[in-house]
Design brief:
Order of helices and strands of chain A: HHEHHHEHEEEHEHEHHHH
Number of strands of chain A: 7
CATH architecture of the largest domain in chain C: 3-Layer(aba) Sandwich
Structural class of chain C: alpha/beta
CATH superfamily of the largest domain in chain C: Thiamin diphosphate (ThDP)-binding fold, Pyr/PP domains
CATH class of the largest domain in chain A: Alpha Beta
Strand order of the largest sheet of chain A: 1-2-3-7-6
Number of domains of chain A: 2
Order of helices and strands of chain C: EHEHEHEHHEHEHEEEEHEEHEHEHH
Bound molecules: thiamine diphosphate, magnesium ion
Number of helices of chain A: 12
Distance between the termini of chain A: 72 Å
Largest sheet of chain C: 7 strands, mixed
Number of strands of chain C: 14
Mean pLDDT of chain A: 97
Largest sheet of chain A: 5 strands, parallel
Mean pLDDT of chain C: 98
Low-confidence stretches of chain A: none
Number of domains of chain C: 2
Oligomer: heterotetramer
CATH superfamily of the largest domain in chain A: Thiamin diphosphate (ThDP)-binding fold, Pyr/PP domains
Shape of chain A: globular
Amino acid sequence: MTTGSKLSLHVPEPDWRPGDTPDFSNVQVPKAGSVRRPEVDEDPEAMRDLAYTIIRVLDRKGRAVGPWAGSLPDEALLTGLRHMMTLRIYDARMMMAQRQGKTSFYMQHLGEEAISCAFQMSLAKGDMNFPTYRQAGLLVAAGYPLTKMMCQVYSNDGDPVRGRQLPVFYSSKEHGFFSISGNLATQYIQAVGWAMASAIRQDDKIAAAWIGDGSTAESDFHAGLVFASTYRAPVVLNIVNNQWAISTFQGIARGGSGTFAARGHGFGLPALRVDGNDYLAVHAVAQWAVERARRNLGPTLVEYVTYRAGGHSTSDDPSAYRPKEESAAWPLGDPILRLKAHLIEKGLWSEDRHTQTEAEITETVVAAQKEAEAIGTLHDGRRPSPRDMFEDVYATMPPHLRRQRQEAGF
Amino acid sequence: MTTGSKLSLHVPEPDWRPGDTPDFSNVQVPKAGSVRRPEVDEDPEAMRDLAYTIIRVLDRKGRAVGPWAGSLPDEALLTGLRHMMTLRIYDARMMMAQRQGKTSFYMQHLGEEAISCAFQMSLAKGDMNFPTYRQAGLLVAAGYPLTKMMCQVYSNDGDPVRGRQLPVFYSSKEHGFFSISGNLATQYIQAVGWAMASAIRQDDKIAAAWIGDGSTAESDFHAGLVFASTYRAPVVLNIVNNQWAISTFQGIARGGSGTFAARGHGFGLPALRVDGNDYLAVHAVAQWAVERARRNLGPTLVEYVTYRAGGHSTSDDPSAYRPKEESAAWPLGDPILRLKAHLIEKGLWSEDRHTQTEAEITETVVAAQKEAEAIGTLHDGRRPSPRDMFEDVYATMPPHLRRQRQEAGF
Amino acid sequence: MANMTMIEAVQNALDIMMDRDPSVVVFGEDVGYFGGVFRCTAGLQKKYGRTRCFDTPISELGIVGAGIGMAAAGMKPCVELQFADYMYPAYDQIVSEAARLRYRSAGEFTCPMVVRMPTGGGIFGAQTHSQSPEALFTHVTGLKTVIPSTPEDARGLLMAAIDDPDPVIFLEPKRLYNGPFDGHHERPVVSWKKHDLGAVADDATAIPIGKARIMRLGNEVTVLAYGTMVHVALTAAEETGIDAEIIDLRTLLPLDTETVFGSVRRTGRCVIIHEATLTCGYGAELAALVQEQCFYHLEAPIQRVAGWDTPYPHAQEWFYFPGPKRVGEALRATVEAI
Amino acid sequence: MANMTMIEAVQNALDIMMDRDPSVVVFGEDVGYFGGVFRCTAGLQKKYGRTRCFDTPISELGIVGAGIGMAAAGMKPCVELQFADYMYPAYDQIVSEAARLRYRSAGEFTCPMVVRMPTGGGIFGAQTHSQSPEALFTHVTGLKTVIPSTPEDARGLLMAAIDDPDPVIFLEPKRLYNGPFDGHHERPVVSWKKHDLGAVADDATAIPIGKARIMRLGNEVTVLAYGTMVHVALTAAEETGIDAEIIDLRTLLPLDTETVFGSVRRTGRCVIIHEATLTCGYGAELAALVQEQCFYHLEAPIQRVAGWDTPYPHAQEWFYFPGPKRVGEALRATVEAI
Ligand SMILES: Cc1ncc(C[n+]2csc(CCOP(=O)(O)OP(=O)(O)O)c2C)c(N)n1
Ligand SMILES: Cc1ncc(C[n+]2csc(CCOP(=O)(O)OP(=O)(O)O)c2C)c(N)n1
Ligand SMILES: [Mg+2]
Ligand SMILES: [Mg+2]
């Protein structure tokens, strides 16, 4: 039985391209405080709705409302704001440094600062993140030295990874930050393996896996979900949906499912969708998922809804594929401004203190930058030795590499 | 915040191992006819329940009941019975041939005959299956010659694939049967690509992808779902859940999700679960999914619930990892006996005709086998030439292969 | 005759073939509306529509796997992997499926697909944007592997690859996209537009797969090179003044052994260069073949100059890249060996 | 001294190491309750519990990827891939991740993991149960690649591999699991239990990675072999009466060049054999190295005897397998070359 009628291929397209006027008025953004907070041991099937909504805490007036509010004390909120501001200022300086030719490449977090900064606050010492290139907030919030970060970006002699990696591919075991891979998604299943190891050893440490919306299409994402689901690994499975994967809008990776969080339903996992530009909501949901993992209740999938306000990297110009106005029109606002407004509303902060803090942080960042540049930049100053190129391929250098190093003259 | 309490790894185990007495009394088998039949263009979200149930048509008395009944006329049911009986008798002969050393390896369908035999009846000429090694019923039902199948199993000179492939790795474009790969799951995304091509060309042909429960863990399954969901490819995505993947029970691949069909929910796909031992139910659901694809409504995920009654292959002895009684205790019965009972109930069939047909088919199969063996078997008679080994690596043999063939002396 | 960059040449080949044959489809990450991160598919979606040139999810496995299915259905997919470094997720589909399909079905199902990917280093891309995995393809029976070194070759070979009835791996040396690169990274880049080798014929024609080209005639030593290294070899010959015969292999598999062996038998010496890591690189096969077939003509050991057996580092890029200095030294050592 | 099959030897090594070190975990498809389709993990789940030895979903990517995460967490996973032919889905994790982790984190994160897999043909497994992908590992910096040819080596090398601080690919020639195979498929198999080479020491000790072994001393020609081919080489030498020195490489990377070059410089002739397809196989690297380092000692072209450049066929298995006849002919041609 053939119908005689013709098939056609559906190729999803974003609603707007350069030249169009973006209009998000039909995007459903649930009211802050309106989404329920289940117990962490509730049956995943019973919280299916949480994958199709957006958990939000901060309302338009800057108030923290609803069942997800209150996960952090005031002091921590002030610290959180500082982390986000630091990350943004750091990014701006490094973007500029790249333009000045001090390094080859850079990737910023503009608009996405809340996610990694707030998430880190839900972890404990010894837990391990398996991040992508857009979660440096994990390091900032963990107190990793800015100078060291910059040395990595400059690939100079102070770079802990000896100039071997692309800028922003940090690594710090001590700060629970797994070495970044340039290959998308590969670390997702590794995070699950790390968490399985913790469970095998009957430890109490948990892991956090990170992935972008676009990268969920990769195989490792599936492997991660399969293994996490089967062995109930103590891991938080994070998806940062910033709407874009370089020039490709999220609809290409998401396809026919309403949300990325929904992917978890195929695996019986609790799947939560959260406002990624709401520091309080991110923290509350992260804490919930971390508690679940810690209590041996298994993995949680979390989708952070956010927007990549900048280009994909310094090699990218987004105006070639999306309207310039899209970022401003995006309905979830700016994470720093929103937390700032909340703190002002609470009487804990003011415009003045903000300006003053901005200046302070800028000073700190500039000082760190000076320190880093005093060591060197990609093309100048003290840089890792070519000898270093041959180290760490193996624990012990095998004869053929020794010969090659010699041949290279180092 | 660490809890101090210890994590532990959950490793799923089947309910019974050799020595235990299997007891499926707590397995929920919905009554035949009790599951609704939505319209093919109903919103996938609205038919979520169909992934957690089992669509059944044949009741205990052999009657076809409920909204899924009646997809096939009587004549077709008789043909269907014959297909299944042929496949089973063919399997038995080939199992024996392997034991007799006439070939190296064989894989049978025991208990799973309904799935591929009934599915094929829902397709039209020009549609393409991307099967695994356990869907030879697709060929039988498409009228592929038994002798040719046997020649493939024997790797003799009549083998259409020139002795190159493992036994049962058939290929027939004409019969809508894509060349089988030894690598699990790889063909799933290829089926989606084939379907995309049909849609790009605005043709009316559709594809069917096949995979086992265990193999859904592979990456290609994920890629298939992602692409099918994004481009709404005209493809039926089949999962044959026969409870076992060699020695591994389905719980290892399924993990925390209730069913394999549920995997489709992460992609917004309609997902149906069907009694794989019920010829009528399989056909009705297949037809529904095929119609959806044909009408350009996109992909459907179908899980066939069945039981691998035999060993994984001739290299396998299942009594090493599951109770011998498990197969008999399995609640969905035998597909041939069930269809037979239905036809008898309908007055279309009798024990006598069954016995007589069995004898007839045996004769046909034995005749085909003689014909095939007259050509040769793996170690005897006319076999593909070693020259053949060098053909078809490329369309035109490149110089280095010509040289090697010469060196080999052929 | 006009000049084109290699990017334009690739785009032009795709344009010509899509125009000629409606079964040619182009897809990959960011190749649709945007036209690819290297712009090799610019304008194609606009011209041929969204179902002939489109963006895919980030799944190299999916891109190649879907391509195989399409090819089996009679289309001619020409897919892009964003970087050769990201071909690994697709490797199973390439090796176990694309390369084997004709064989295992005795010609019933075939896979006329091209898998394009930018390869090689020299752009400060570090270990995951610099790899040269050609040997991982040439070891696989059933694949052809092609790598151009000029815009004309890029266009002509890509046209031939799309026409080919079998799967072809098409490696694009990204350091050559905009201009030839002689290995002197400290010097300004010359654009193809201003370079003799940037000229392309007005009439675009396919260049047969399997034919090497002698880029420079010479008598003292034969240099086997491909991709970026062709230009480095030319520079090294010039700078050392050694009378080297430089062969651009263009196709790695099937290899043009006639041209290779003919030259080495004449010069009696051979240097092989590539950017990929040394051990088990494609140069090993070249050396093995040459020593076997030209043994009695060889006057010196065959030397290989290659990437070191380390990942491609970021800061130390120019110590890793086998530049004209290292190549020159190998040439000298080889011609001086007695 | 007792005799063991290679399967028992592998099982024994795992048992010893799991007993010694609680961080050793074993997992893979069907390795748990059942003990593996080749029975190499038999009894381990029972002895060490389900969290130390367990079944996994059928995802080679997942097996290796999870292993990397565990290794980074300080455990010592020793995972099984059911057949080397099925390593491709895991290839990205092996190449881009396991092999690079130490380098890219400057030693902060490491990957002390062993990936075991049965390799090679000779069991009528056709193209997807017969492959020998060693060259795809030896081209990858950061990996070590090991392949035993006797039970004692299998046990000792596996123990060393598990102890190794870096990722080790451990190839098990499945044709040798039950007994040595000399290539005469028409003759009955001799079990390791009844074969001299099946003896294993009572005291299990690790055998260092990176050391070849001279299996037979000889003067006329050096044969480089590994895995199953070691036994074929021994047979060919015996049958031709050629005084061949036969080296079992045991470790492909890092290669024991001292032993290899020393022998070739003495004999002046070299034959390389492997079961993998010829082009860009590991033999290419051996030939390239030997011609470079032993050039002035070589009296004949180095010959390679290998699998043909086709997929491994089912019916034509014994025409594909490089048996003693082909090896013998190469030996003869090489010693007779002037
Ligand atoms: C395996 C692999 N394929 C392709 C790329 C090239 N690439 C780098 S980033 C990127 C987009 C990723 O998008 P997403 O996952 O949404 O993360 P985002 O950049 O938005 O944070 C692509 C395609 C890669 N790095 N690795
Ligand atoms: C990529 C890959 N990994 C492993 C195997 C080995 N293998 C063959 S069949 C099988 C089990 C498959 O189980 P399932 O998918 O449930 O199919 P069934 O045999 O039950 O029909 C395994 C692990 C393979 N063929 N390919
Ligand atoms: Mg994104
Ligand atoms: Mg199964």
